[in-house]
Design goal:
By secondary structure, the chain is mainly β. The chain is built from three helices and 43 strands. The chain has a domain of 252 residues: Jelly Rolls.
Length: 620
Amino acid sequence: MRKRILLCLMLACLGVTASAQTATSVLLDDDFSKLPPRMFSSGVVGAQAEYHFLPAVAQKGNWQVSCFRSDTSQRAWRVIADGDGQAMYQSMTSKISDAKYMHPMLVAGDPLWGDYTLNVAFSPEFNAMESGVIFRYQNDRCYYFLGVEDQQAVLKIVNHASSFRTADITELGRRSFNWHVGETLTAKVTLDGDRIMASLNGNALFDVRDATWSFGRVALTADVPTVYHHVRVTAKPAAARATRLAIQARDLEEKQLQAGNPKLTLWKKIETHGFGTSRNLRFGDLNNDGQLDVLVAQVLRHGPKDRNCEVGCMTAMTFDGRQLWQSGEADPWNDLLTNDVAVQIHDIDNNGTTEVVYARDFKLTVADGATGRVLREISTPINRATKTPFDKFPRILGDSLFFADFRGQGHAGDIVLKDRYQQVFVLTDRLEPLWQTTCNTGHYPFAYDIDHDGKDELAIGYNLYDDDGTLLWSLEDVLSDHADGVAIANLSQTPGGPLGMINAASDEGMIFLDIHGKILKRHWIGHVQNPAIANFRDDLQGLETVSINFWGNQGIVSYFDSKGEMYLQHEPIQYGSMMLPVNWAGNGESLILLSADVVEGGMLDGWGRRVVRFPADGHP
């Protein structure tokens, strides 16, 4: 009790209590007493949040976990007892290698907060690495930081990265600061335009000017176990009014845009009891009646984790709920998806009817789309993986499938089958081998007839192969992380315009290349995934590219023009998304689907505005 009283007195001495005399407006005042005393973090959700919205990662109270990577970091934040009250506890110690570019982080507030005063009381439990507070937070890679590092006080800017997994840091100030482990430190930051005034324990340490960012949220961050007792954000009347008006204008604009877009309305509800899945659905005209059908594919996991998986039970259905066929044993526990599995719907022989191509039970199978009857199958290739645990089985399980035209037939009648990260196999529609290779495959390839010889080339990972498997070029000697998504397109959309390659290259960032492998633009913006290319804005020439981050900096959405220049970046969510482009209004501008969540989901436009929301109708 005495500790809590002393803490309140310390905060009062710093002038953080709003009164009639100061007439400040309180933007945030949180001692964490309204949160239940338990783990605040989501727990180990891993790549589930990469593919799906999970309530566990949503905002709780005023706060939301901004980033995680390891299993430990997914359990880092906890609400604990603190005297007669409660506190927020960051419980883990970061690896030194991780702390070069990411940190446990908890974020609150609104991106439009401008000038404000931030007061935070916190107690680091170790005298190592960094503990402190963040202000004018843009995302978990771009912000101002005030805190302690060893026996020094530090004020700095973090602005993405300067190289692979190395943050781009500009120090605005560093001074000796004596403190001891377990001591309650009181950090105060006052923002007035480009002026930043910062103190610790009432000692004015820094008074600098920097105009990198004028607005932003607040956050808590620590690389070592640290207790956060109290957070208070106040603003002077003029600043509070400006913030309020800016937020109202943004919200009004989005409501008007939402009113002008078609409303989401429930169309069909189909029973999938016992054979349901996650987002592992495939769509196509399975029974050749001119209507789209759905293939519900479960996932079999052979471990460890999601490293060795394959297709499980497959159920083909019409959208009227009529079951066409089912193959495999349904298991309601096989609905978890955190990786690719090899199953697609495609007219592989160009005869006007669709087939289902899949890898299961160490066989690559072509089945009739209407009945599921096996048309032909072979054993999957011998597994020559050299990395554990991908060498677990003598034959590959199959990780993903892609279709291309390597023989110049005029249709995509050839199959690209890959394993998880190392091996690539190319076969004909009759399952006859054409060629194979090994490389850093990444997750999914892309084919395009680059040289206009009637045959496709294959972009996979950081490599480009000719139609016969000849390696045309590789960047594996300069890019180490795996490619999460690749594409080839004429982004300018001008007739005869140059083809370019887009590579969402995980921690290597977003990379734009020419077709000869020359890097034209590179953005060190974190663990980039799921690139979507479409016309998201009519006022910009050509096509735009949108991506989202995960692992270590999830939820950062970046927008690029046809020249590969980033024109917008924001952080609308704190988890992943498939970033599916949606032709929603039929006006030529695509929207971006975040998720089906009512509160945090919906669709974004090319300006980053949430222009469509899902109804609260009880949908999954």
